[in-house]
Amino acid sequence: MLSYTQSSPGAGPNGLFHPQSFTLPNGLRVVLVENHRAPIVTHMMWFRVGSADDPAGQSGIAHFFEHLMFKGTHKIAAGEISRIVARNGGDDNAFTSYDYTAYYTNIAAERLPLIMELEADRMENLALKDEILFTERDVILEERKQVVDSQPMARLQEQMMSALLPHLPYGTPIIGWADEIAKLDKIAADYFYAHWYAPNNAILIVSGAVTMAELRPLAEKYYGPLKPKPMLPRLRAKAAEPPAPQRITLSDPAVQLPILNLAYVAPTHGSCSGGADKRMPYALQVMNEILSEGATSRLYKSLVMEQKIASSVGMYYNGTALADNALIVYAAPVPDTTIDEVEKALHAEIRRAARDGFTEAEVAGAKKTHDGRGDLCAR
Fold this sequence. Notes:
This protein is 37% helix and 18% strand. It is of the alpha+beta class. The protein folds into 2 domains: 3-222, CATH 3.30.830.10; 260-373, CATH 3.30.830.10. Strands 1-2-3-7-4-6-5 form a 7-stranded mixed sheet, covered by helices on one side.
């Protein structure tokens, strides 16, 4: 039996885009966001698996598998999926994060059945051949050289996360460690595919010029026959308290201007269990807005405009992670200003916020800004 729910316009946070949804008997959840301003659709298949689910010693396999999903099925030759999409006027791509992997296609609305047929085929009938697998593994090793090994900032962030979260999968880079990528093989890929890629581990989101009356029978036709699978547990531990402050310094002749990162272990929506603890990620989102978002933020006004010791300053916090993650504060000193001076000023502002808190006006403004983007739902 097909379960079906539809949000009411303006009802709670769902009112922002008025999504409609239903769930197929095999566990695939389908979400529709109608938008008829142009005769196109975006088809996105999200899988509940990311680099944080990589088995020990196989870092990078979730990202590796993202590449392999474009390498053909038993019916479609390697590389032909994207060529079919392009011949029909569309474009496709994918991305891997710590907790999810997503595949998307933008195409004319009338071509949606074609995309659903292609996606359903590779969810169940991927053809993993050694020669293709090893070639793509070399591609990823080269990608790592370009986006990490040759980029000083990427290397610094990689080492910083590894030191901050040594017992959590978020301390391992999404792309993986080079020596472990080099050992990935067909056995590892087959196991990963068999245990994670299934309709009951996915959410389909379709946005664009299509109605539920049109989408629902298409989803039943193409995705309904796919078989669900038993899912592996998603292991996420609580972050251990760092035994002592740690400092990582990276010097590189390619870096003309230094930058400072302060990283803290922070709770997330996934790691907070309930009660007052459950509100902590929302509080951190509000704090992030007040301290670092825009030219009126506290850090920008203090370090850039008033003290004139930093050329840029900001904060990054991923509150949607399934376990404790990092909250990062960063700043780049202006010429003739030292890292130590900027660090001292950052700590002073953080201590001031912890000691004095925030005004009602600051909190109200931050919540309003987030609500306008639809990413702060709690009050």
